[in-house]
Amino acid sequence: MAFVDNGLPFVNDSNMFDLIKIKRRSAMAREKSTKNGSHEFEDVLYEKKGRVAHITINRPDVRNALRSKTREELAVAFENAWLDDEVGVIVLTGAGDKAFCAGGDLSLVTDPKKKVDAYHMLVHYRLATAMRCNGKPIIARVSGFCIGGGNELNLLCDLTIASDDSVFGQAGPLVGSAPIWYGTQMLPRSVGEKKAREIVYLCNRYTAHEAERMGWVNKVVPKDKLDEEVDIWCKRLLEMSPQSLRIAKFSLNFASDTAFPQITHGLELSRFFIKSPEMVEGATAFLEKRKPDFYKVR
Q1: End-to-end CA distance of the chain
Q2: Hey, which of 2, 256, 277, 282 has its CA 20 to 30 A from 233?
Q3: Exposed e or buried b for every residue in 156-182, given b needs 16+ CB within 10 A?
Q4: What value, to the nearest 5°, has the Cα angle with vertex 63 and ends 117 and 278?
Q5: What CATH fold (topology level) applies to the domain 31-223+242-296?
Q6: In whole angstroms, how far apart are CA 249 and each of 193, 214, 223?
Q7: Would you say the pTM of this structure is higher than 0.85?
Q8: CA atoms of 131 and 145, how far apart (whole Å)
Q9: CA–CA distance from 272 to each of 111, 140, 179 (Å)?
């Protein structure tokens, strides 16, 4: 049986070794910290400026697409910010100016040597926990594409500030997938049930201003004013009581926390559909820059 105390799971003996491994990995990552709060990662940049932790997805050559390693490193970065009492606000962004995050790395789907294994599942749970149970406000600083799994990452953040040239959307059914990792759970809470179905089913693209009008993002500013606006929001948040912000975040999360069984079911289903004929066709078509023909593989 699993118990939860202050957002942290306590597991039985059968899972204890996995938990110990996770803790050791996190401890090793924290030991690499330098005095200014930077950390050594491959897919992620971490920097602490004053009381603000800046986490950057650093894969600009693939529009900051997420692979399992990226998700694990993001989780470690958020955990480090969580455990640092000097940090009051966290800012998440993507390297370069083309994309915040364009979704999952589709090479997992098309490469027959890559498996949808337990590690793939673990890093999804771990990253979401590090963001949802982290009692510090997380701002998504969006510049460029925020699509698919990238938008699900955006939805896991508390606040979103976007440049006026940003583009939002889901891409699941277009590539044979579905946004079951906080997309179908959180998007209706931002834009409403009917609009969420439109966004998920049709996979259309929306401008930053359209997203703002729907309640999908908090603020849209000119690209050259993005960092300035993020700094303004960070400074304002740092004027607030950290304890009160933590309590408010968990209280606001309460209703959507009840969707956790939906997350577990969705992730387990993903182990089957990620390598399905329809998703292989969708991912292959995307990489080949053509329209998928799902009905030929049914």
Answers
A1: 40
A2: 256
A3: bbbbbbbbbbbbbbbbbbbbbbbbbbb
A4: 50
A5: 2-enoyl-CoA Hydratase; Chain A, domain 1 (3.90.226)
A6: 23, 22, 28
A7: yes
A8: 21
A9: 15, 31, 14
The DSSP output letter for 274 is T
Residue of 63, 111, 123 whose CA lies nearest to 280: 111
Neighbours of 232 (CB within 10 A): 14
Q: Per the structure block, which two tokens stand in for 192?
A: 């409403």
Taking the domains of the chain in order of start, what are their residue ranges? 31-223+242-296
Tokens of 97: 């100016």
CA distances (Å), 57 to each of 42, 93, 123, 243, in order? 10, 6, 15, 28
Assigned token pair, 119 = 């590690």
Q: 39-94 pLDDT, tens per residue?
A: 689 999 999 999 999 999 999 999 999 999 999 999 999 999 999 999 999 999 99
